[in-house]
Amino acid sequence: MDVVIVESPAKAKTINKYLGSNYQVLASYGHVRDLPAKDGSVRPDDSFSMSWELDSKSKKRMSDITAAVKKADRLILATDPDREGEAISWHVLQVLNEKKALKDRPVQRVVFNAITKQAVTEAMNNPRDIDSDLVDAYLARRALDYLVGFTLSPVLWRKLPGARSAGRVQSVALRLVCDREREIETFLPQEYWSILATLKSERNAEFEARVVGLDGKKLGRQDIPNGTQASEIEGLLNSASFTIAAVEAKPQKRNPQPPFTTSTMQQEASRKLGFAAARTMQVAQRLYEGISIGGETVGLITYMRTDGVQIAPEAVQAARSTIAKSFGDRYLPEKPRHYHTKAKNAQEAHEAIRPTDMSRHPKDVASYLDADQARLYELVWKRTIASQMASALLERTTADINATASGRTVALRANGSVLKFDGFLTLYQEGKDDEQDEDSKRLPELHGGETASREKVTTSQHFTEPPPRYTEATLIKKMEELGIGRPSTYTATLSVLQDRGYVEIDKKRLIPHDKGRIVTAFLESFFERYVQYDFTAGLEEQLDAISAGDLDWRAVLGDFWQNFSASVDDIKELRVTHVLDALNDILAAHIFPEREDGSDPRSCPTCDDGRLSLKLSRYGSFIGCSNYPDCRYTRQLSQSDSEAADADNGPKILGQDPASGEDISLRTGRFGPYVQIGEEAKPKRASIPKGWSPDSIDLEKALSLLSLPREVGLHPESGQMISAGIGRYGPFVQHEKTYANLPSVEDVFTVGLNHAVTLIAEKLAKGGRGRGAAQVLKELGDHPDGGAITVKDGRYGPYVNHGKVNATLPKDSDPQAVTLEQALELIAAKSKTSKSKTTKSKTAAKKTTAKKTTRTKKTAS
Predict the structure, then answer these.
(1) May I ask the CATH class of domain 191-255+393-463?
(2) Cis geometry, peptide bond prior to residue 189 (ω within 30 degrees of 0)
(3) Beta strands 663-669 and 652-656: pairing type?
(4) Which pairing describes strands 206-214 and 392-405: parallel, antiparallel, or unpaired?
(5) Which residues are catalytic?
(6) Helix 132-159 crosses helix 514-526 at what angle (to 10 degrees)?
(7) Arithmetic mean of pLDDT, 620-646
(8) 57 φ, ψ (degrees, to nearest 5)
(9) With contact defined as beta carbons under 8 Å apart, do 285 and 275 qualify?
């Protein structure tokens, strides 16, 4: 019996059917080990040695694999055909060696680009060893990402409270989004005019011509700057005579696009199917791993993480056969087409994404697929077949017309094209973000020397527009062009940016949050080299060179770490005021917009000599006055001064509280919108939950928020009340000291007793605990003075603990990412505060005792 290791159970099931009963195929469920989320997992001073750990689930899976290998004749590692797949095989092998499970059993590595019986059989007949160069490239990438994240993130926590993390690729992708937003904000629209003349030929056929010149001077599309000049040209045309100076018809050829890479598939699926990048990859993964068709599980497409555009020779021949059979010989080019990618750092050895069987038409498999799978498979099939089809042939006609009046000449041009042979366009045409069908425009029969008559002249005013915000697809395309990241990382990078609250997606467009813009501005100011596009792309090239065996991975890491660690050490000494001054400058256009009255955008609107500046707090960033505390002016970053004034001076009255008769108002404070009852010294308030627009808040919603926490009912076993509310970590139900999360804010108001009891029970079954009990989240190591330092999760959130000292973590910091160095700083600061309080208490106690003694003596005397 031979044991075969793959990543997923779906893949394992399919491959086991292909191989038969002499093989046992087991799934690793992806990576089995990772670097522990603590300081010291990568040790630069020890030749970049690394500590790896198995989580609880991986331990169970590796135990099963180990038991199977001990009974096996041979171990075959059949993980994915890329750098990550090679790394998974290496990790499995390392764990098995540590467990001494292999002994003298042979170990082989096989790779296949498609999960079909033929591909798997051929791979099994051509085994190889683990590619150490690919593993080295993986180790270098993983170490780089760890060192950047775990070194840079603590700097962000200290200098920018509220910032969550930074990453080698993540931060550069965020910079792209923020730079585009800055372009949009600083864009100055320019006015221009276009002039279109509707003319009629000698054969009474109408056509349109655009003005392209005046008195021998060429005019581009934006060269008529104002209505005055447009009116002047319009007047000339209305009195002019028109002569067709020349007509030229040129044949044009349009070639098909290459088969899909990961990036181009995500872009097309976004444009044509409306899929987000993550959704595209999920559907593609299922098509790759296999679909049950007629009782047999078949992989329908090849491996979907690739930047190569070539396909195997046998696939090319299969595509050509399908074209000849389905469309005829006219649509088959004389020779097969060969493609080369234009993307930076592409790995040409990887095959493009294609159907595993070209003759498997989308309509033949549609009944076996869900809607998303069917649509994506059809897209892949059409793109692949079209890539080997004949070019489309067009005839493009250009007519130059001269209009003369009062001794002056206006040049016009009419363009049109005729599709002579549709070629690949009969099957597939690449989508465009702003699609225009130029082939539908056609000119009538025109000849040089003929005259034309004027029907009408139309002038139109236009303004230049800023570049559009990135979509997921266009950001991926840009990252690919710059050589940033890899096909396997694009989707994960976009997810991290959203999860960290750095960007949001609105109508498919990526919009940076203020938090993301501040992080980017900080990195550009103090770590500029490490968010430069060329530098990040250069690192990717070095990783590729490691994969090819041309560079030593430790040498690459050494060069990087020497400069990077020095930069971090320099920034640690910066005062926060220095950081804020730099951010004020780089974000000025965003946080200090021009005022309508032309006054200084940074002058305080409420005091005479105050200067506005970015301020930082544990709850995030805001704009405040330099004269604090004498001047308490504040506003949110996204507000203008006038909006802040409206929010401060004019709370919106939503209605009256039925119980007290007091006004219920909607207001905006430093930390966002909220609702309030009355005007007492300490009125009851409730924040507007995330995802709720302030404009949607009416009296009913306000009363619902102010009534929280809501009593759901008595627990059937304990007899204690279960309540529902919204807390620091979102909506929840609570029973005694046990809290269970709710899916959405709306569930707080609708969850019933039975559902709440079930949620509480599930939380307890998973090891849930009350918020009053502290659970150890992470062990950091020993304090220099002795005693363990741990990260715990208490009733009021995560904190670090050493003996009797508990130091709260900054808001939004990741408990799993806390380093020993950071913990020591927090504990030292907490201890200093505690000692100060203790000293003051003792001093006060001594004074009190002395006074009592004096009073006693006086009384006695």
Answers:
(1) mainly beta
(2) no
(3) antiparallel
(4) unpaired
(5) 303
(6) 110
(7) 74
(8) -70, -40
(9) no
Contacts (Cβ under 8 Å, ≥6 apart) of 746: none
Residue tagged 């003792």 (tokens): 842
Give the per-residue SS3 of 111-137: CCCCCCHHHHHHHHCCCECCCHHHHHH
Q: What is the residue-wise DSSP string for 129-184?
A: ---HHHHHHHHHHHHHHHHHHHHHHHHHHHHSTT-----TTHHHHHHHHHHHHHHH
The chain-wide mean pLDDT, for the chain, equals: 86
Q: Give the span between the Cα atoms of 510 and 436, in whole angstroms.
A: 24
- The three-class DSSP label of residue 717 is coil
Find the range with the poorest average confidence among 18-27, 142-151, 207-216, 338-347: 338-347
Q: Which overall architecture, per CATH, does domain 140-187+468-581 show?
A: Orthogonal Bundle (1.10)
Distance in Å from the first CA to the final CA of the chain? 103
Q: Is the dihedral of CA 84, 90, 94, 97 positive or negative?
A: positive
**pTM of the prediction?**
0.70
Fold classified for 595-649: Bacterial Topoisomerase I; domain 1 (3.30.65)
Sign of the Cα torsion 614, 615, 620, 622 reads negative
640 phi and psi, to 5 degrees? -85, 170
pLDDT above 90 (res 638): no
- 785 backbone dihedrals φ, ψ, rounded to 5°: -90, 5
Looking at residue 43, what is its pLDDT?
94
From-to residues of CATH 1.10.460.10 in the chain? 140-187+468-581
Peptide linkage before 716 cis (omega within 30 of 0) = no
74-77 and 107-109 strand pairing: parallel
pLDDT value at residue 656: 86
Which H or E run includes 59?
helix 56-70
Cis peptide before 629 (omega within 30 of 0): yes
Pick the CATH number of 2-130 from 3.40.50.880, 3.50.50.60, 3.40.50.140, 3.60.21.10: 3.40.50.140
Q: Sign of dihedral through CA atoms 15, 16, 18, 23?
A: positive
CA dist 384 and 311 (Å) reads: 9
For the chain, give every residue range classified as CATH 1.10.290.10: 262-390
Cα distance between residue 656 and residue 664, in whole Å: 5
Element (H, E) at 327: helix 313-327
Can you tell me which residue has the tokens 């590619």? Answer: 131
Class of the CATH domain delimited by 262-390: mainly alpha
Q: Which residue has the tokens 């269970």?
A: 740
Q: How far is 615 from 621, CA to CA, in rounded Å?
A: 6
Q: What is the number of alpha carbons within 13 Å of residue 689 lying toward its C-beta?
A: 22
Q: At what angle do helices 9-19 and 117-124 cross, to 10 degrees?
A: 80
Q: What is the largest CA-CA distance in the chain?
A: 132
Determine the 3-state secondary structure of 202 from DSSP.
coil
How far is it, in rounded angstroms, from Cα 152 to Cα 526?
Answer: 11
Query: Are the C-beta atoms of 369 and 291 separated by less than 8 Å?
Result: yes
The arithmetic mean of pLDDT across residues 71-88, rounded, is: 92
101-157: per-residue pLDDT in tens? 998 899 999 999 899 889 999 999 999 999 999 999 999 999 998 998 888 888 887
Helix, strand, or coil (residue 46): helix
User: Which residue intervals of the chain bear CATH 3.30.65?
Assistant: 595-649
Tokens representing 385 are 């077949």
Residues 484-511: pLDDT tens digits? Answer: 887 778 888 888 898 888 899 888 899 9
Instruction: Give the three-state DSSP class for 690.
Output: coil
Tell me the angle at which helices 132-159 and 820-860 cross, rounded to the nearest 10 degrees.
Answer: 30
Judged on CB neighbours under 10 Å (0-12, 13-18, 19+), 677 is buried
Q: Is the Cβ–Cβ distance between 793 and 809 less than 8 Å?
A: no
Respond yes or no on whether the N-terminal peptide bond of residue 709 is cis (omega within 30° of 0): yes
For residue 123, count other CB atoms closer than 10 A to its CB. 20
